[in-house]
Inverse folding.
Protein backbone atom coordinates (compact mmCIF):
# COMPACT_ATOMS: atom_id res chain seq x y z
CA UNK A 1 0.00 0.00 0.00
CA UNK A 2 1.26 3.43 -0.89
CA UNK A 3 0.49 6.77 0.75
CA UNK A 4 -1.56 7.67 -2.33
CA UNK A 5 -4.55 5.66 -1.16
CA UNK A 6 -6.22 4.91 2.12
CA UNK A 7 -6.91 1.30 2.98
CA UNK A 8 -10.63 0.62 2.45
CA UNK A 9 -12.98 -0.85 5.02
CA UNK A 10 -13.65 -4.50 4.17
CA UNK A 11 -16.86 -6.28 5.10
CA UNK A 12 -17.56 -9.86 4.10
CA UNK A 13 -21.11 -11.10 3.52
CA UNK A 14 -21.19 -14.84 4.10
CA UNK A 15 -23.74 -17.61 4.41
CA UNK A 16 -25.05 -20.67 2.69
CA UNK A 17 -26.29 -20.57 -0.92
CA UNK A 18 -29.66 -18.90 -1.49
CA UNK A 19 -29.67 -16.93 1.76
CA UNK A 20 -29.94 -13.59 -0.06
CA UNK A 21 -26.32 -12.39 -0.10
CA UNK A 22 -26.41 -10.97 -3.64
CA UNK A 23 -29.88 -9.47 -3.20
CA UNK A 24 -28.83 -7.80 0.05
CA UNK A 25 -25.68 -6.36 -1.50
CA UNK A 26 -27.68 -5.04 -4.45
CA UNK A 27 -29.88 -3.15 -1.96
CA UNK A 28 -26.98 -1.87 0.15
CA UNK A 29 -24.76 -0.58 -2.65
CA UNK A 30 -27.04 2.25 -3.86
CA UNK A 31 -27.78 3.34 -0.27
CA UNK A 32 -24.08 3.68 0.49
CA UNK A 33 -23.12 5.17 -2.88
CA UNK A 34 -25.88 7.81 -2.65
CA UNK A 35 -24.20 9.05 0.53
CA UNK A 36 -20.92 9.49 -1.32
CA UNK A 37 -19.20 6.29 -0.22
CA UNK A 38 -17.31 4.62 -3.08
CA UNK A 39 -18.15 0.91 -2.89
CA UNK A 40 -16.36 -2.00 -4.52
CA UNK A 41 -17.58 -5.59 -4.58
CA UNK A 42 -15.64 -8.83 -4.83
CA UNK A 43 -17.56 -12.03 -5.49
CA UNK A 44 -16.03 -15.40 -4.64
CA UNK A 45 -16.96 -18.11 -7.13
CA UNK A 46 -16.19 -21.13 -4.99
CA UNK A 47 -15.00 -23.98 -7.13
CA UNK A 48 -16.46 -22.91 -10.46
CA UNK A 49 -14.58 -21.75 -13.53
CA UNK A 50 -16.66 -18.68 -14.31
CA UNK A 51 -16.58 -17.13 -17.77
CA UNK A 52 -17.18 -13.45 -18.48
CA UNK A 53 -15.97 -13.46 -22.06
CA UNK A 54 -18.18 -14.65 -24.86
CA UNK A 55 -16.64 -17.23 -27.16
CA UNK A 56 -15.51 -15.70 -30.43
CA UNK A 57 -15.28 -12.12 -29.12
CA UNK A 58 -11.93 -10.33 -29.24
CA UNK A 59 -10.99 -10.57 -25.55
CA UNK A 60 -11.92 -14.24 -25.50
CA UNK A 61 -9.74 -14.84 -28.56
CA UNK A 62 -6.77 -13.07 -26.90
CA UNK A 63 -7.11 -15.23 -23.78
CA UNK A 64 -7.46 -18.37 -25.88
CA UNK A 65 -4.28 -17.33 -27.72
CA UNK A 66 -2.45 -17.43 -24.36
CA UNK A 67 -2.35 -13.85 -23.09
CA UNK A 68 -1.83 -13.78 -19.31
CA UNK A 69 -3.67 -10.46 -18.98
CA UNK A 70 -6.38 -8.96 -21.16
CA UNK A 71 -8.06 -5.61 -20.61
CA UNK A 72 -10.93 -3.99 -22.44
CA UNK A 73 -12.00 -0.41 -21.95
CA UNK A 74 -14.66 1.90 -23.34
CA UNK A 75 -15.97 5.37 -22.56
CA UNK A 76 -17.98 4.00 -19.65
CA UNK A 77 -16.21 0.93 -18.20
CA UNK A 78 -13.09 -1.23 -18.03
CA UNK A 79 -12.64 -4.95 -17.45
CA UNK A 80 -9.38 -6.66 -16.54
CA UNK A 81 -9.07 -10.42 -17.01
CA UNK A 82 -6.19 -12.37 -15.49
CA UNK A 83 -5.54 -15.99 -16.29
CA UNK A 84 -4.74 -16.84 -12.66
CA UNK A 85 -6.39 -16.57 -9.27
CA UNK A 86 -5.60 -13.37 -7.37
CA UNK A 87 -5.51 -13.38 -3.55
CA UNK A 88 -8.32 -11.49 -1.85
CA UNK A 89 -5.87 -9.11 -0.13
CA UNK A 90 -4.44 -8.10 -3.52
CA UNK A 91 -7.91 -7.46 -4.96
CA UNK A 92 -8.78 -5.32 -1.94
CA UNK A 93 -5.54 -3.37 -2.30
CA UNK A 94 -6.24 -2.74 -5.99
CA UNK A 95 -9.71 -1.43 -5.11
CA UNK A 96 -8.15 0.85 -2.51
CA UNK A 97 -5.75 2.17 -5.14
CA UNK A 98 -8.78 2.91 -7.32
CA UNK A 99 -10.29 5.04 -4.55
CA UNK A 100 -12.83 2.62 -3.08
CA UNK A 101 -13.69 3.35 0.57
CA UNK A 102 -15.66 0.15 1.26
CA UNK A 103 -15.10 -3.30 -0.22
CA UNK A 104 -18.04 -5.66 0.17
CA UNK A 105 -16.86 -9.24 -0.24
CA UNK A 106 -19.39 -11.95 -1.02
CA UNK A 107 -17.99 -15.21 0.28
CA UNK A 108 -14.44 -16.19 1.28
CA UNK A 109 -15.77 -17.55 4.61
CA UNK A 110 -12.30 -18.48 5.88
CA UNK A 111 -10.79 -14.99 5.55
CA UNK A 112 -10.36 -12.89 8.72
CA UNK A 113 -12.12 -9.66 7.70
CA UNK A 114 -15.25 -8.53 9.58
CA UNK A 115 -18.27 -10.55 8.47
CA UNK A 116 -22.02 -10.32 8.24
CA UNK A 117 -23.49 -13.81 8.48
CA UNK A 118 -26.79 -14.40 6.69
CA UNK A 119 -29.03 -16.91 8.44
CA UNK A 120 -32.13 -17.91 6.52
CA UNK A 121 -33.04 -21.02 8.53
CA UNK A 122 -32.32 -21.97 12.14
CA UNK A 123 -29.88 -24.69 11.11
CA UNK A 124 -27.72 -22.07 9.36
CA UNK A 125 -26.65 -20.94 12.85
CA UNK A 126 -24.17 -23.82 12.76
CA UNK A 127 -21.88 -21.59 10.68
CA UNK A 128 -21.47 -19.09 13.50
CA UNK A 129 -18.88 -20.99 15.58
CA UNK A 130 -16.93 -21.88 12.42
CA UNK A 131 -16.36 -18.24 11.44
CA UNK A 132 -13.95 -15.62 12.73
CA UNK A 133 -14.65 -11.93 13.20
CA UNK A 134 -18.44 -11.98 12.85
CA UNK A 135 -19.56 -8.34 13.16
CA UNK A 136 -23.28 -8.96 12.80
CA UNK A 137 -26.12 -11.25 11.76
CA UNK A 138 -28.66 -10.74 8.98
CA UNK A 139 -31.59 -13.07 9.51
CA UNK A 140 -34.90 -14.08 7.97
CA UNK A 141 -36.64 -15.34 11.11
CA UNK A 142 -37.52 -13.65 14.38
CA UNK A 143 -34.69 -15.01 16.51
CA UNK A 144 -32.59 -13.44 19.24
CA UNK A 145 -28.88 -12.87 18.76
CA UNK A 146 -28.13 -11.12 22.03
CA UNK A 147 -24.35 -10.98 21.69
CA UNK A 148 -24.16 -9.59 18.12
CA UNK A 149 -25.86 -6.76 16.24
CA UNK A 150 -28.60 -8.30 14.10
CA UNK A 151 -30.84 -7.11 11.29
CA UNK A 152 -33.80 -8.51 9.42
CA UNK A 153 -33.04 -9.28 5.78
CA UNK A 154 -35.26 -6.42 4.60
CA UNK A 155 -33.61 -3.78 6.83
CA UNK A 156 -31.10 -2.51 4.28
CA UNK A 157 -31.21 1.05 5.64
CA UNK A 158 -30.47 -0.13 9.21
CA UNK A 159 -27.64 -2.26 7.89
CA UNK A 160 -26.26 0.66 5.86
CA UNK A 161 -26.24 2.81 9.03
CA UNK A 162 -24.38 0.00 10.86
CA UNK A 163 -21.78 -0.18 8.07
CA UNK A 164 -21.25 3.59 8.14
CA UNK A 165 -20.47 3.35 11.87
CA UNK A 166 -17.77 0.74 11.14
CA UNK A 167 -15.80 3.32 9.15
Amino acid sequence: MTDKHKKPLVLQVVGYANTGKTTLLAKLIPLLEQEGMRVGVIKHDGGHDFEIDQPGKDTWRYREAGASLVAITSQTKTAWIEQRPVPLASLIDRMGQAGVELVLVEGFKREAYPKLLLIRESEHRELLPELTNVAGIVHWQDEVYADLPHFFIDDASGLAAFIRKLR
The CA atoms of residues 89 and 111 lie 10 Å apart.
